[in-house]
Amino acid sequence: MTTCPICKLEVPALDKVGTADGFDCPEHGRFKISSTVQITQQNASWDRWEAALKRARARQPNEWAPIIVDDDF
């Protein structure tokens, strides 16, 4: 288990691929975040995280678990 960076719920972790950590959140679905986002956006607001996830999904519409990267913020 891990903590969703958006809603702070305890959620199942997805298998780690490269340096991206993954989350399977009942509120936000499956997604991953890059290692740099983990470091630079730890204190980002809920609104900023929501917007970043929306942009990541728009960039990667067919991905099983889109990856949130710095440019999504």
Notable characteristics:
73 residues, alpha+beta, four-stranded mixed beta sheet, 2 helices, 6 strands, 27% helix
Give me the secondary-structure topology.
Elements: E1 2-3, E2 10-11, E3 13-17, E4 20-25, E5 29-33, H1 35-40, H2 46-59, E6 67-68
Nutshell version of this structure?
The chain is an alpha+beta fold and 73 residues long. The chain is built from two helices and six strands; from the N terminus they run E-E-E-E-E-H-H-E. The chain has one domain (2-72).
What value does the Rg take, in angstroms? 11 Å
Pattern of helices and strands? EEEEEHHE
Q: Count the domains.
A: 1
Quick one: how many beta strands?
6
Number of helices: 2
**Sheet with the most strands: spatial strand order:** 3-4-5-6
Write down the overall mean pLDDT.
Answer: 96
Helix proportion: 25-40%
The outline comes out as globular
The description of the largest β-sheet is: 4 strands, mixed
The structural class is alpha+beta
Distance between the termini: 25 Å
> Proportion of β residues?
25-35%
Q: Which residues sit in consecutive blocks of at least 5 with pLDDT less than 50?
A: none
